[in-house]
């Protein structure tokens, strides 16, 4: 996960790898898996860094207005809502 968060340069439009993947159908599947893994880490069901969930959740929340219109984006938001017990979109 560190490579996705920190290992890529911005593209010509100023987007990093995570931004691009959230907007792509196949890439979004990777982000959904990252979210599942980060949840498991935060619940101590898997080894990893606890910061993964915080960083990924923050990025999803910031991108919610852009991704809510995509079915794959809605899945990210629904999963995050389920875990956090909050509604991040109206």
UniProtKB/TrEMBL annotation:
Occurrences of domain PUM-HD (ranges): 1-84
Cited SUPFAM superfamilies: ARM repeat
InterPro entries: ARM-like (IPR011989), ARM-type_fold (IPR016024), PUM-HD (IPR033133)
Gene Ontology molecular-function annotations: RNA binding
Protein's name in the database: PUM-HD domain-containing protein
Source species: Parascaris equorum (Equine roundworm)
């Amino acid at each position: 996960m560190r490579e996705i968060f920190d290992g890529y340069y911005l593209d010509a439009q100023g987007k990093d790898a995570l931004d691009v993947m959230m907007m792509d159908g196949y890439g979004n599947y990777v982000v959904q898996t990252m979210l599942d893994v980060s949840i498991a880490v935060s619940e101590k069901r898997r080894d990893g860094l606890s910061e993964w969930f915080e960083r990924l959740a923050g990025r999803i929340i910031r991108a919610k207005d852009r991704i809510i219109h995509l079915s794959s984006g809605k899945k990210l938001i629904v999963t995050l809502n389920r875990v956090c017990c909050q509604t991040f979109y109206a």
